[in-house]
Amino acid sequence: MLDDWTLNRLFREARTPLAWTRARVTEEDLRRIWELARMGPTSANCSPARVLFLMSAEAKEKLRPALSPGNVERTMAAPVTAIVGHDLAFYDLFPRLYPHVPLRDWYAENPALAEVTAFRNGTLQAAYLILACRAVGLDAGPMSGFDNDAVDRAFFSGTTIRSNLLINIGVGDMAVTRPRDPRLSFDEACKVL
């Protein structure tokens, strides 16, 4: 069992920042985050997530037109914004990532199955990325308020990668954060059969 400090850092007291401090995030930090996040399980180790870490002002400006108005300021202020996408042709890596069973053609010949698998498992990997940020002492602000098509045109044109969500990464200014919104209880959200 993890200790209470760790559980608080990962879950109980972790928040989505609305503002950011000036604390720097380095490429080394991002590599440490990915080294943790990549270890989370996915279906047949399909690992479809692809991440662009936007650190430069130029990269952030390229993203700006795709952002919903309410997300512009916090995204521009964040030290890093991750575009988490999923590769629709993830199955091309099965010979290396899951050599036990020849699954490539199963997905390659069924685009609908490949798309839902990529989206589901890429989303799962985004959640691992959020937890990895928290585990290394950074905060994460996931967002879906953006134009996916515009992001795909700007960042993934000519590829099989599609955007899923954005995650701002840095050290949050928790003095600006609102009180935590309610969560559903076990009895409201779960059932044991």
From TrEMBL:
Pfam families: Nitroreductase
Keywords: Flavoprotein, FMN, NAD, NADP, Oxidoreductase
GO molecular function, one term: oxidoreductase activity
Enzyme Commission code: 1.-.-.-
Ranges of residues in domain Nitroreductase: 23-155
Broad EC category: oxidoreductase
Keyword NADP: yes
InterPro entries to which the protein is assigned, alphabetical: Nitroreductase, Nitroreductase_HadB/RutE, RutE-like
Origin: domain of life: Bacteria
Keyword NAD: yes
Cofactor(s) essential for the protein: FMN
Coiled-coil regions listed: none
Transmembrane segments: none
Family as reported in the entry's similarity comment: Belongs to the nitroreductase family. HadB/RutE subfamily.
NCBIfam families, sorted: PRK05365.1
HAMAP family: Oxidoreductase_RutE_HadB
UniProt protein name: Putative NADH dehydrogenase/NAD(P)H nitroreductase KO353_07400
Source species of the chain: Elioraea tepida
